[in-house]
Amino acid sequence: MTLPFALRLPVVAAPMFLVSGPALVIAACRAGIVGSFPTTNCRTAAEVDAWMSEITASIDGAPWAANLITHSTNERLADDLALVAKHKPPLVITALGSPAPVIDTVHAYGGTVLADVIDVRLAQKALGAGADGLACVAAGAGGHTGTLSPLAFVSAIRGFFEGPVALGGGIADGAGIAAAIAAGADLIYMGTRFVAASESLAAPGYKAMLAESGIADLVVSTAVTGTAASWLRASFDAAGYTVDGGAPTRAYNSAGDGAARWRDIWSAGQGVHAITGETPTAAIVDDLERGFRAAAARLADWPAR
C-alpha cells in the first residue's frame, strides 16, 4: 500500500521503554525514518507535553509516532491522549490493550492508528476495534516478544488485511528490511538496533553489553514481567534471576543490591549481533540503507544468477 507520508527507508525506530526519548526520535526523523517513543517514558503528562513540543519543533514536519498503553491500568491514558490531540503525531501505536480508546481522537486530526499485536487473533480483534493497521511483533523481537515467524506472520495477516502493516522481530539490517518488504510488510518495526544509538536514553553499561552480545547471549523468560520477553542474559543473571530447565524462577530482591527491575535488566532482540558499539542514529540509518539497496539489487539480479 501507499503510506500517507514519504520516508527514506520504511523503518520505524520502535518505541522502547527507558530507551526512546526526544533526542532519539528527532535523530530518527532527521535521518529519514519514523521516530517514536512510549509516553510511559515520561513521569508526568507535563513531561509528555514538553517532549512532544520539542519533537515537533525540531523535525520540520517529518512523520513521528507516539506509543500509548491502552490497558485499563494506565491511569494517565486520558491525559496522554489529550496531548496526542494537541500535538497530532501522524502515527499512534497502541499496546497492551484495545486500540478503541484512541481511535476517535486520532482520526479527528487525520492520524493513523497501528495496534501492536503478537498473533492473528489479536490482530483481528484490533482491526475489529477500529485500528487502521498493525504493528506485528514476531519471534526474535526484544522486550515483550512474539512466537510467530516474521515471514509467516505477515503472510497470515495478508490473507485477510490489505492495510498498513509494520513488522518486527529480529530485523536488524538492510537485507532484513528488504526481505520483510518483499514478504508484504509496509514498514519495519526495529528496536534493538537503535538501543545503542548515541541519542538513546540507554545506560552506557547497557550499550556496552549489547556490543559484546550475540544471539546466544539472550534468554526469553516470563520471570521479570509475567509475560514472555527477551533479555540480555548477563543482566538477567546479574539481577538474580535464574532459568532452570526452561522454567524461570524469580530470585530477585531489589533491596539486596540496589538494582531496579525495570532499569537494570536489559532487553534485546535477535538482531543484537548487528550492534558493534555506540553509533549515531544517522550512521545506523546510512548502514541500513546501503544494506537495503544491496539486497534489492540482489533480488533484481536473481534470474541472472
TrEMBL record:
Gene3D superfamilies: Aldolase class I
Key words of the record: Flavoprotein, FMN, Monooxygenase, Oxidoreductase
Gene Ontology MF, one: oxidoreductase activity
The organism's place on the tree of life at top rank: Bacteria
EC number of this enzyme: 1.13.12.-
Stored InterPro entries: Aldolase_TIM, NMO
Entries under SUPFAM superfamilies matching the protein: Inosine monophosphate dehydrogenase (IMPDH)
Extent of the signal sequence: none
Family assignment from sequence similarity: Belongs to the nitronate monooxygenase family. NMO class I subfamily.
Protein name from the UniProt record: NAD(P)H-dependent flavin oxidoreductase
Native source organism of the sequence: Sphingomonas hylomeconis
Lineage: Bacteria, Pseudomonadati, Pseudomonadota, Alphaproteobacteria, Sphingomonadales
